[in-house]
Design brief:
By secondary structure, the chain is of the alpha+beta class. The chain contains 15 helices and 35 strands.
Amino acid sequence: MNLRNIAIIAHVDHGKTTLVDQLFRQSGTFRDNQRVEERAMDSNDLEKERGITILAKPTSIEWEGTRINIVDTPGHADFGGEVERILSMVDGVILLVDAAEGAMPQTKFVTGKALALGLRPIVVVNKVDRSDARIQEVLDEVFDLFVALEANDEQLDFPVLYASGRNGYASEDMDRREGTLTPLFQKIVDHVPPPSLDQDAPFSFLVTLLDRDNFLGRILTGRVQSGVVKLNQPIHALDNQGNVIETGRASKLMSFRGLERVPVEEARAGDIISLAGLTVATVANTIADTSVSTPIQAQPIDPPTLSMRFAVNDSPMAGREGSKVTSRMIRDRLMREAETNVAIKVTEAADRDSFEVAGRGELQLGVLIETMRREGFELGISRPRVLFGEDENGKKTEPYETVIIDVDEEHSGTVVEKMNLRKAEMTDMRPSTGGKTRITFSAPSRGMIGYHGEFLSDTRGTGIMNRLFEKYGPHKGAIEGRKNGVLISNGAGEAQSYALGPLEDRGILFVGHGEALYEGMIIGENAKTDDLEVNPMKAKQLTNFRASGGKDDAIRLTPPKKMTLEQAIAYIDDDEMVEVTPKSIRLRKRHLDPHERKRASRAKEAA
């Protein structure tokens, strides 16, 4: 059978997974009466809830005698590590661009990686039926982007299709608004070369994705680079230096058919397969016939730029809601994550009760924490901090990001002012679609931590912000953090309306009546700049003079401000932590005892 391997790449929300749904339907992968969920490739709970793709996943469809292996990739820059490693499995890419939004930061990031590998793209301008579509301008932007990324002449001569993934049509005619995806299938078969790999050489295979199965153990996924592998064939795993890590047999071979993995007896060069039978081999290792001693070189992955401290939960409420609370369990889980996710690095701290987890951004680490809390873990999480570097002269450097912001005209002044305070430099400002203004900044990553919530408030929820790692540049000096202090509980007990009512004048509360509190827990934001210890547990004294009823008992509290995990992580300061359990997210001071807090603050000032 003819074979084509292709990846679909695009910025977040430009319609990759919806297009794959339609490719399934129109290729006959699904029966006409088969009930299929929307965005079938977004299979895990977090992907469905957030409406974004987090993990790269291969699938396969058949069209007129050609098998097309498709890899659906994440569109968010934080999950760029997923995209970088799978590009070595494919021979072509479909670049999907929104007909209104145009080329966005993630489009630039992934396209640059694909062009550097020599892949020839097919450009699909998606959502052409949008009322604010600007198709020709978007096409010009894509061409300019390719030129800026130093594409060669062959890559610049890219074919273009105009499509609506949701409505299931594509055409070479810009004005067409009906039809099927047949032109896209035809373009893939004509434009993407079949794998030109040696089928007569000994078997070799580079691991790009790692999965686990309760029955089969480790499942290693990648593309067969050479030769043929048969069921139960002796194989061994090599690291990057060519050392043999382990030997074993290919106890199970599986190929992709639609959303399913199906067992096969053999696989040939060019096939994307999953293989089981090894217990140690991991991502970037080479699995090969025992006669092979030279490893396949894996693509280098961009380094992490941000880190957080994951610690054992040591609050007074530890162990009440979670089942996995020990440092050993946390260590094993983080090490497993670092194996499957090449963009994450885990190092153990000297106290052995905490771990430094480095990744690409707050969203990536937030997804990891959310996944762990759903598995039953309890954790203490520190404020994110950027990873500094040094240039050749020994001067301190820090990561910078390209930040593209689309805002209504009336909010642009506020946004520019706030970004200047965070040491960002404006590099471009131009009108965008829908009466918005598009402003581009080069900003230190350090200044962007915690800004997103404030940005949404400043733009009344109408602003859109996209960020992408740009470079390591000179250190920008001190950047002003959170202006307000916090309200801290001075004891343990239950929050009482009688005490919370007067505290509303002091600031914004994060807790409501009846919630369990402990000493050192943050219960609200102070209206002033300093921290304030308060007693939120004070109840009304019931004596002969004060009856339990009466008008002064009818206290009406404003609903407390409840933070999501990402908001909490972005909100905390350096001396604070987020306590994460399967049922709760609480904010607290790192040192719960007020005397220890004073000592730590004096030590910091002295330093």
